[in-house]
Amino acid sequence: MQAQHRVSPPPSGVGGLFTVLSYNIENAFDTRHDEGKDDLEFCEGGERKWSHTRLMNKLKGVSKVIAAADEKRPVDLIGLCEVENDTVMQYLIRRTPLSQLGYRYILTNSKDDRGIDVALLYSPYTFHPIETQPIRPNIKRQKTRDILHVAGTIKGGDTLDVYIVHLPSKRGGDDAQKLSQSICQILQAHTDSVRAVRRHPNLIVMGDFNAETNSSQLKLLTRSHHLIDRTAKLQPGTYKYQGEWSTIDHLLTHTTTLSHQQTRILSLPFLLERDRTHGGDKPHRTYQGPAYQGGISDHLPIVGVFQLKK
Known about the structure:
By secondary structure, the protein is of the alpha+beta class. The chain has one domain (18-302): Endonuclease/exonuclease/phosphatase (Deoxyribonuclease I, Chain A). It is built from 4 helices and 18 strands. It has helices at residues 52-69, 86-94, 173-197, 216-222, and strands at residues 17-28, 77-83, 104-107, 117-122, 128-135, 147-153, 159-166, 203-208, 228-229, 239-241, 244-246, 249-254, 258-265, 272-274, 281-283, 287-288, 291-292, 302-308. The longest helix has 25 residues, at 173-197.
């Protein structure tokens, strides 16, 4: 759904720039049980001892990340993974410092067993949605997250098509890999069809792919060069597992009236902690197994900066 609420006066901007942020915010659950969803461990009194205070600490941290992504102007689009529902998004835009910026959001309602969804947070001053479409993979006996597709207009009246993706975890083994590949085939067909009908196509695909640049999933999306992986060479990575960094979160683009300027991993000090087992740093996550760590996420966010062509 799209949230409607009173917004602040338009923030001052820096001419011609357009900034996007992609972030998996790790289990952003509210504290109530959603019927039919496997979320009891994150309910009040559940085994993880999740609470409203812990949720708000996380969301205030997310708002701090969004503010830090661009110190000169508000980020235009934020793609979020692992958001449970409207309650979480309402808290984020109304009960954190983001409330001063007038953000609105669009959220999927997928068949994921845990109730985890993806969302697009957007500034109504620089992005104007004209079409919203959840892309539900129609794969037998498989319940997985929808892809969120939002088409909107940007400065100058051109259309920007945005896709927020959260592919299945690698922990599912071969079955998860096959499912992930099938979802990417659906995504590829959709982006190809959109690109074919737009006069000046601008596409941004972002999110948690649970796969590296050299994976079959990413190669499927980029092999025709219609989509470029802007995160292909970024270091050290967005996720650290058993001491090894990898980039499993991606920003893919195909643009004609947007010129790509920069993509970077936002590895700010408050997002990291010492890795006492393997050395170096690692993301300061919310939970390590069942143990509460007090951080924001086990992923690092990605920031992309574009220039609007005149």
